[in-house]
Amino acid sequence: MSQEQPRREEHQRRVCGPTSHSRSGGARGQGIKYGDVFAVGGDLADQVVSPRDAANMKKAESAIWGRPTPGGAGNTMASAAAMNVYYGAVRPDQESEVVRSLGITISETPILGGRMITEFVAGQVVSQYTIDDVVHGGRGKQVGFDQVNKDDTAKITIGEALEAAGHAIGNEPIQMSDVAAIREAEVRASGIEIPVAGGITDQANAAARTNMWATRDEDKIKLGDILSDATVKLYGDKPAEPEDAANVEDVEASKNPDGRPRPGGVAFAVANAAQINQGNNF
Length: 282
Known about the structure:
The protein is α+β, with helices and mostly antiparallel strands and 282 residues long. It is 49% helix and 10% strand. The protein has helices at 4-16, 20-23, 26-30, 34-37, 42-45, 51-65, 73-86, 97-102, 158-168, 176-190, 200-211, 223-227, 230-233, 242-255, 266-278; strands at 104-111, 114-121, 124-132, 141-144.
């Protein structure tokens, strides 16, 4: 056995924590449903957001402009799906039945000065926004996920993993070990050694230092305040990989007094995303 194997097993034990069966239970065990994150009804509202749902939406978005958009539903779905896998509500390769039956589509309609983008899951609108662009032709087009090449756009990014952590323990006050993990995640995501001034690391650092002076938890700035829109705040983003997870975990653990990453926090979320991505090459 190579020397790398024991480290990998130790990393999984420290970061990934208990099995999905022991994590599931209660509201978390039921998972984040479409009705929890989108204004939808019917059977879709009760469906748990699944990893393949998110991957297919991101592929459909990429068919229009080459990559998933921060303003689209793909990021929201990916963050929810990542947490659902972590809490054992879905499998990493699972797809929702209603989505499999009714599909995912995106309509693109020219408007004055740009385009109106409307994203549908199972025939219901989950996101609508405009983008500034040159109008091509005189009519909108509709793209199904089965028309898109299989590539990294289906995978969960580091930014989406940060947003998942913001959902998981968003009410927890941000602390310096979180800042260290966020900084490493930003560096890994953007490929820039020094975090962008005023970016997500700077915001997290300012929040953690402010919290040091707060005497009551209710007055402290929470992780969710910083991470809820991480994909928008990052200068760049990329799919989470095992090496990213290991680096973020090492940094976060080194800044925590107990030498372990925070349960459900940044390192957990990046590790979970990397694990899902390894099996997301369908």
